[in-house]
Design goal:
CATH superfamily: Aldolase class I
CATH class: Alpha Beta
CATH topology: TIM Barrel
Distance between the termini: 31 Å
Number of helices: 12
Order of helices and strands: EHEHEHHEHEHEEEHEHEHEHHH
Radius of gyration: 21 Å
Shape: globular
Strand content: 5-15%
Number of strands: 11
Helix content: 40-55%
């Protein structure tokens, strides 16, 4: 009926080429997730170490994966030495994307390239990245990125949806997808959010009627997904601080299906703030059509913990090049390749848990 309604056909393993997926290949991947009742972890990266760890983890799990950058992560990827922060956000994201395009196929999995929360002031960031994708599409027939997110949940819904529609019209001819946010994800990520925390805050719960309004407008333009809030927050939260209500997702799916006479689970849903979430709530959300769950805080901690353990076990190596007592050289300890690799390995290990929790382990569509 509409441009965004997914096929219910299940894709078989090996049906897509390994590497970055865009356009119809991305739609196929999303449909396979929903039909197979599993989701992909969307992992925030900040540099080549965390990015390579995600690729390694996905290959080890034989799972497809989503690699994404926040605006701060993209700026850090470009290097803190670049003083023009707006330029650094764009160049860092583009640099990371080119890195993934070069390596992903060699890791033998399908990779979705995505950028995370962009509020109203960051719309120019997304528009600048679209310029790079337009150049890439003209040159190769594929965009540089698979998708981008606009988080305009703090704006009136009509303004939110109008801006989303405007950018989706630019993205759709390249086969790109747009992720939108309806309702507010609590916590804070790179300066976005935090003012709506608390289990009793209605803003943390998306209204199904708003989702239906978005579907009516955007489904006629192109492919999109919805980060619908059901009490989720960024970061790891104390018990009782927030109440997850995945049933809100089912309510949105049911309302859209009834109003627009679509097949079951017409919405492509996203779970933000996945770190620290209860496993049964994750499984319930996936059963309602969530194909993507963001994970950042847990993987940050895993990387830091891997490095930190080594530093604590070998403190002299991070204070002296040569032991002041016995003259022992410490180069093999403080060599960045040693301790950064331990961070990567810890991140790879933590992500194996995520692939299992989301049900994607062993289900890569890459041939």
């Amino acid at each position: 009926m509409t441009a965004a309604v997914e096929s219910t056909k299940t894709s078989s393993a090996g049906s897509l080429p390994a590497g970055v997926v865009t356009g119809e290949d991305y739609r196929t991947l999303v449909s396979a997730c929903k039909a197979g009742a599993y989701a992909l972890p969307a992992v925030n990266v900040t540099g080549t170490n965390s990015l390579n760890a995600v690729l390694e983890a996905a290959a080890a799990a034989k799972s497809d994966v989503i690699i994404q950058l926040s605006n701060g992560g993209a700026r850090f990827f470009a290097g803190e030495g670049l003083k023009d922060e707006a330029q650094a956000r764009v160049l860092g994201a583009v640099s990371a994307a080119r890195h993934v395009h070069l390596l992903a196929q060699h890791y033998g999995v399908c990779v979705v390239l995505h950028t995370d929360h962009a509020n109203k002031k960051l719309v120019p960031w997304v528009e600048a990245m679209l310029g790079y994708s337009e150049q890439e599409h003209k040159r190769t027939g594929k965009p540089l990125f698979t998708s981008h997110m606009l988080d305009l949940s703090e704006e009136p819904i009509d303004e939110n949806l109008a801006t989303c529609a405007r950018l989706l019209k630019r993205m759709s001819p390249m086969g790109m997808s747009l992720e939108i946010e309806l309702g507010v994800t609590g916590g804070e990520e790179d300066g976005i959010g935090a003012e709506h925390d608390g289990a009793d805050n209605a803003k943390l719960y998306t209204q199904p009627e708003d989702v239906a309004k978005a579907f009516k407008l955007l489904s006629m333009i192109g492919h999109f997904s919805v980060a619908a809030s059901f009490g989720n927050v960024h970061g790891v939260y104390a018990p009782g601080n927030v109440k997850l209500r995945p049933e809100i997702l089912k309510g949105s799916q049911d309302l859209v299906q009834q109003q627009f006479k679509t097949p079951a689970k017409p919405l492509n849903l996203v779970f933000h703030g996945g770190s620290g979430s209860e496993k049964e709530k994750i499984s319930e959300a996936v059963s309602y059509g969530v194909f993507k769950m963001n994970i950042d805080t847990d993987t940050q901690f895993a990387f830091a913990n891997g490095v930190g353990k080594f530093v604590l076990e070998n403190p002299k190596a991070f204070q002296h090049q040569i032991d002041p007592v016995d003259g022992k050289p410490y180069k093999k300890f403080y060599d960045p390749r040693k301790w950064l690799r331990l961070g990567e390995k810890a991140m790879v290990e933590r992500l194996q848990e995520a692939f299992v929790d989301l049900g994607s382990k062993g289900k890569s569509l890459a041939g």
